[in-house]
Amino acid sequence: MTATFPASQAPAVRSTGRASSRTTDRRQAARTALAEHLATHDPLAHVDLTVPERTWARVGTGVGADIWLITWPAGSSTGWHDHGSASGAFVVLTGSLTEYVWTGVATAGTLGASSVREFDGSHIHDVVNHGTETAVSLHSYAPGLAAMTRYELVRGRLQVTSVEQRSESW
């Protein structure tokens, strides 16, 4: 099965707020890296949909961006996190994912196959597969993903629980 990147920007869901030129450039770099990767690779070719836990692998790089493939068995979740200062974009290749976004309160949106999501470096979210089948998504982060901050929701507020630096484990 070959996945294609949506040509139109219309289905994209974007973070709100004023974006600086640098943020816009990073989001465009992430989106371009995704499009180029999908034009030259079949990200679903080696995906094992029977793995019982969420898996992620860095599958490439674009100009100033890292590309990651994530499989999401039913019920799997990222937990609340950000991507350091990296902006990003992801496309759902199969299945559907629900993204909870933190803006002082949690809001949710469901993204089906071929849906694209772009975000800036201040984006905090939790992504969950509420479906009954494994979902697969392809993500790009610009500049390359160097750190992630993890959060926990406590009494209606997000509190930092850890900051992960890029290492051999990811």
From TrEMBL:
InterPro entries: CDO_1, RmlC-like_jellyroll, RmlC_Cupin_sf. Keywords: Dioxygenase, Iron, Metal-binding, Oxidoreductase. Pfam families: CDO_I (PF05995). It comes from the Bacteria. One of its GO terms (molecular function) is dioxygenase activity. Residues 1-29 are annotated as: Disordered. Belongs to the cysteine dioxygenase family. This is Cysteine dioxygenase family protein. It comes from Nocardioides cavernae. The lineage of its organism: Bacteria, Bacillati, Actinomycetota, Actinomycetes, Propionibacteriales.
